[in-house]
Amino acid sequence: MTVRMPVRLSKRPTTRDPASEQPAASTGYHEAMPPEKLHWVHLYREVVTSGLCTGCAACVVACPYDVLGYDDEETYRPFHVDTDGGIADCTHGEKGCTLCTRACPRFRSWETEIDQYLFGRTRTVEEVAGVTQQVLLTRATDPELLAAGQDGGLVSAILVWALEHDVIDAALVSALEGDGNGMKPTPAVARTRADVLAAAGSRYTYSANTLAYAKAIESGAERIALVGMSCQASAPAVMSARKAGKIARRLTLSIGLLCSKTFDDAIFEELFEERYGIARKDIAKINIKGVFQIWLRDGSYQEVPLKEGRAWTREGCKCCPDFSAEHADIATGGIGAYPNWTLTLVRTDRGREVIEGMVADGAIETRPGEEDPGALDLLAKLSRVSRRRWPEGSPPEPRQVPVKLS
Ligand SMILES: Cc1cc2nc3c(=O)[nH]c(=O)nc-3n(C[C@H](O)[C@H](O)[C@H](O)COP(=O)(O)OP(=O)(O)OC[C@H]3O[C@@H](n4cnc5c(N)ncnc54)[C@H](O)[C@@H]3O)c2cc1C
Ligand code: SF4
Ligand code: SF4
């Protein structure tokens, strides 16, 4: 029997300067939130109703008073219950609670603030895809995880490895609703290999995996990995930097999925079914590689031009500047010349410790990212395109050239 040694991850924030490979003397991070008590009234005006809100649900899970709800059917936005201060205000906020603004990855100067917190510096002009320690191509060595994964099965392999090595107690993932025949993702908790396998692969409509946090806590989990789109992957670092309560300590690992958009659920009926005769119940898998690649349960395959999906772009994605999951511990994507490999950006010390541990155990194979220069070019290009979406005049400006903070 193999004895699995527990692995302990280093504390946040990272203390290594990835650019120099030298330990940084200090992250230089200072509490960036102003002393003013910023709460729902500010979040509602500056993020929720300004077009910046991604629907990541970080504010909802951070709220200790249960006065925030979440619409996962149409708007993918948080709302404040009518009975307590009305939709635009909050009585708990008036009394001094600031947790929703402390959790929000789009509030005020989030990008430079979290760069500084995680990496001890802000990004350079060249680091358009964010700060990284390493870029790799990776894939799971376990054939079952590789087959189930969208690309190289890295994300699922990380979760299985981290559960088996006592790094985490649970992961927040996206499972499929009901019998899994509707391609409808839903936030879920994975505590076992079987749970991880059931959630593997990508669905291209939104799943606010953070919402599974309460269930994970109910099941006794204390160390939790969050798998999520780029917008969600910033939440653990934001919460940790701004001291957003216990949740900040519990979200111990952030695994981000590269992302330029998600689609409204109506795309299934209004585009795939109406125009191409593809019923959602018949779809086994979708991937996006310049086109929608659609594999059907009867073994057949169809393609739908990606530009036809534009009309179903989810509202919350239209201003999102983060293609590359810039504040994840590990960011993962499928672009590049090698199918069945995951493009992997190792950003933090925690991320590096996980990848190194997995390599040492033979859980994954890796190749240098430079073996696929086309993927690195595309990563930079898609990151640049997303950054241009950030609206001018919104604070801060991920559109602008990053400056080094003193
Ligand atoms: C909506 C979406 C858009 C993406 N866009 C791009 C892109 O433009 N370019 C690119 O290179 N890569 C993109 N990716 C990432 C890519 O599809 C893979 O998720 C990534 O390469 C990891 O592959 P893997 O085989 O290692 O992961 P797997 O082992 O397959 O694990 C994937 C994990 O993602 C979770 N997941 C699946 N769907 C969702 C969802 N909708 N919301 C939240 N979590 C989910 C699953 O629960 C699972 O834990 C996107 C992914 C998604 C979900
Ligand atoms: S971006 Fe996320 S945390 Fe911020 S308001 Fe929207 S749902 Fe809440
Ligand atoms: S583009 Fe992707 S990362 Fe950005 S808001 Fe949409 S789902 Fe989130």
Write out key terms for the chains shown.
8-stranded mixed sheet, binds iron/sulfur cluster, 406 residues, binds flavin-adenine dinucleotide, 15 helices, Nuclear Transport Factor 2, Chain: A, 2 domains, alpha+beta
Describe the structure.
The structure is a single chain. By secondary structure, the protein is α+β, with helices and mostly antiparallel strands. It folds into 2 domains: 302 residues, no CATH class; 46 residues, Nuclear Transport Factor 2, Chain: A, CATH 3.10.450. Helix content is 29%, strand content 19%. The strands form 4 sheets. It has an 8-stranded mixed β-sheet with strand order 7-6-8-9-13-14-5-15, with helices on both faces. It is globular. 49% of the residues are buried. Bound molecules: flavin-adenine dinucleotide and iron/sulfur cluster (SF4) (2 copies).
Could you give a quick summary of the protein structure above?
With 406 residues, the protein is of the alpha+beta class.
Q: Can you tell me the overall shape?
A: globular
Strand order, main sheet: write it out: 7-6-8-9-13-14-5-15
Nearest-angstrom radius of gyration? 20 Å
Number of strands: 15
Task: Give the overall average pLDDT.
Answer: 91
Strand content: 15-25%
Largest sheet: 8 strands, mixed
What oligomerization state is this entry in? single chain
- Please tally the helical runs, counting DSSP H or I stretches of 4 or more residues: 15
What string, H for helix and E for strand, traces the elements in order? EEHHEEHHHEHHEEHHEHHHEHEEEEEHEH
Low-confidence stretches: 21-30, 401-406
State the domain count: 2
Fraction in helix: 25-40%
Distance between the termini: 53 Å
* Ligand roster: flavin-adenine dinucleotide, iron/sulfur cluster
> Structural class per helix/strand content?
alpha+beta
